[in-house]
Amino acid sequence: MGYKCSVILTKALILFVLVNCLHSAAAAVSPQPVTDIPCVACDAPCPKRSSYVRGGCTSCNAHTSPCCGGVKNDYFQNGGTNLRKNCTCNTVKSRCCDGVINDYFQNDQFENLFSNRDSLEAHAKGFWDYHSFIAASAHYQPYGFGTTYINSTFFGTKEVAAFLAHVGARTSCGIEVASREPLEWGLCYNKEINSNSNNYCDEHDKNIYPCAPGVAYYGRGALPIYWNYNYGEVSKDLKLDLLNNPEYIEQNATLSFQVAIWRWMTPIMEHQPSAHDVFTGYWKPTKNDSLAKRVSGFGATINVLYGDLVCGQGDNEFMNNIISHYLYYLDLMGVGREKAGPHEVLSCAEQVAFNPTPSSSP
């Protein structure tokens, strides 16, 4: 009797399982609605510079929106059995931001990098200091300056070294004091010397950014900007009237650093990356970029900032001086020059310029 009951119970259990399996199979072949998922553009071009709005960098602790590519019939087929619930793009790099620069870059490191900035020979003695740099950085850290992770790799320390290498090279008076180490003389200047030779007022931009009477738009700042157009553009971003009062930059060290970081973080032209983008590797080279020998890395930052005034000219003193500062700063910041990458990444000697410019100042 017990054996018969056991057989009956077993059969009942098998029947129950079969009914549920058939029900699940029927549900699987029924068309299911596609859930709308917030997406970000996979290959969105850089906006025009005049309408550029800098996007915030997603927190590393936050859930990021998926990136969507393709068309619906790529996955809505066979009665809905190929539905793609998570939309991702393998070609898009994951970027997020975390921390602040003064977590890893301290006052003593700044002093080592710019050890002679307050020497008697310095033209801007007493102007520059660490706290001005940190205060200026705070405005751009939420957008990834010195705080970026790409695919979980931190680029902050190397980016600060790269940015300051450009600063050090452009503001150095090392050539004038050649008897000493030339790489130790960054932040010697805060403006262009012999600036009365050109007012840098571009007639083509006077309708948008009219030149103020008696004002000259010569190079000012830690990474000097020139021309009325650039002064007008940075005025919008920092919400200051630098078009009418460009002298503010050479009177305030924090503002001077802010203008420099603005130049580093902002694309020069439409469909072009910023120096920040090419250095961190967030920028993805196109086929045309590859043919032009443009690759992500330090050399591409020189290309973005100076174009064919420096790049595509083979080895030259201006480019090599910036590279030397970068390697030197990597050593002083504890990263080590061996982390800088191969020569083709460091140099732009063979790169075609992103933005050929027949006449402008570096």
Automatic annotation (TrEMBL):
GO biological process: carbohydrate metabolic process; cell wall macromolecule catabolic process; chitin catabolic process; defense response
Glycoside hydrolase family 19 catalytic domain segment(s): 107-337
Name this protein carries in UniProt: Glycoside hydrolase family 19 catalytic domain-containing protein
Leader sequence segment: 1-27
Keywords: Chitin-binding, Disulfide bond, Plant defense, Signal
Disulfide-bond pairs as recorded: 46-60, 201-211, 311-348
InterPro entries in UniProt: Glyco_hydro_19, Glyco_hydro_19_cat, Lysozyme-like_dom_sf
MF (Gene Ontology): chitin binding; chitinase activity
